[in-house]
Fold this protein.
Amino acid sequence: MALKTVEEIKAAILAAVPGAAVKIMPNPSPSAQQSLLIEAEHATAIATFLRDDEELALDYLSNVTGVDWLDKEIAEKVKVTRQVAKPVEGGDPGQAEMVDETVEETRKHIEPGYLEVVYHLFSMAKKHGPMVLRMRTANRTDKVELPSLTPVWRSAEFQEREVFDLFGIVFKGHPDLRRILMWDEFKDFPMRRDYVEPDDFEYEPTPHDEVLKRAQEHRAKVAAEEAKS
Amino acid sequence: MSTSSTPLGNVTARLARSEKLEGKPEGWNRPPVIEVEGDSELLELAMGPHHPSTHGVFRMDVVLDGERVIKLKPVFGYLHRNHEQLGQSQSYLASMPYTDRLDYFCSLSNNWAYALAVEKLVGQVVPERAEYLRVILAELTRIQNHASTIGFLLQEMGASGTPLMYAFRERELILDLFESLTGSRMMCNYMRFGGCRVDASEAWLDGARKVVAALPKFIDEFENFLMSNEILMARCQGIGVLKPELAVNAGISGPMLRASGVNYDIRKVDHYGIYDRFKFRVPLGDHGDIFDRYMIRMLEMRESVSILEQALKEVPGGPVMDPKAKIRNFRPKPGEAYGRIESPKGELGFYLISDGSPNPYRYRVRPPSLINLTVLEDMCLGSNVADVVLIFGSVDIVLGEVDR
């Protein structure tokens, strides 16, 4: 049995969860797997509806993953009309009149980046899917909280822990939110697009040439940091 | 399948098949908290990371009350190498050999899952002959994976060495086939977007037919080990039970899900490749215990043999690679795709986002091994510490895929 279209699912969600804001995200690739962007506030209610609705019955949360979207610098060419002083032909040298002139200007603005969680839902009862849900954080630095869907689908437990570990999205309401693949003392988030791997060349057993140089630099840096603290 | 009673009496109570999710109390899908009576002293034990039964480098932090497990926390990451970041830092094709290293028992199914996801992303078609070869290789992979898993069960129960070698003897024949076709026993790196890397010769197909013809005899013999062994029955039946509604909610897939009685096989649901052309059945378990999980694998091997017989009968001629497939300067248009297959361990999926550049913007592996471990604690609570090893083994994981 085929799954309803995203438009129908959106309408069903809006009817069941009043006040919810749902946006259809297009997917231009041939897979045509469109997704629904929901906001954090109604996420648990929407998820519970999707799971328990008789027709949708999306009881199987298959895949949970994060995506990091960096700050985007967008350059736009804008036509600007300005008033320019222009000497009057045949008049006195000092005489000028104001004329409209249209110039093309490149303006740059920064579209703030965000972190995104993507949920792939299927139905084992009705054997249809996938239906893709997305949620976005406000930014990439301090407002990275999203509600956890683990109480609705247990399969999100380890996967949300992984997203927390590798992307740094904090899931509120997760029963056991700890790092899962990296060790607990680790500081950074290795799956972010701007992640820089640490220069831990002190572990190189037989450093040589360029590696030796970097190892020495690294040791000096570590020693300087230790001396400071 | 005779599972109603064991030499120890009827320990396999039948489970309700489909309980509704609605009306369940909050937190029903969490592992229960076991109360300890009296003033018993609790023992905290780290099983692993180096323990032969953990199938790799994996740790379970167990809290014991005597022999009884009252808490269990799996600890991952010893083999973590940030596979996904690696995949994003190189071109689409360059990730193909890396997928071999996810679940190194089943490199060919990993190849297929990745190729399938990319083919979905770009709308690539695959020629007939390549589809047949893919099915043949994936089913051979399934058989050797299931045989080894059952061999490991007997090994973990204390039948050291010999039973595992029975499985490995058969696996070796299949690996020989892989080697002669792809050049490598385990790291096959065989599939490409839009087909397969090299064609199989008629001699190779004959060799495959010979191996497949000998398989039913091996499966009969191997099933005898499971079915006629009193100790095995006593240790496996009624232990590590997983209820179907929890299995569905926890995203369990593959043989483990079907052992709990949920009819969900992606080969039947998605009909990816050409699986709709073959006749095969989906074996289902009744009890969701360790024994059922192994029995399902046994029965799936028989179904795989039947698929192989049908596929090897009618391999069509033609190219193994779509001549229009783009290899150089492969840049999918912006968009995303999620492709999944029924790998021997469960649902193996790849999620790709393209931004139009030669590297994927996002490359995600949905690892069945990791997600099937979600319910490990639920299955182990209350049982003996010796059973933990068996329950863990019956999940069938490979750490290369769990940690990525």
Remarks:
- The first helix of chain B runs from residue 83 to 88.
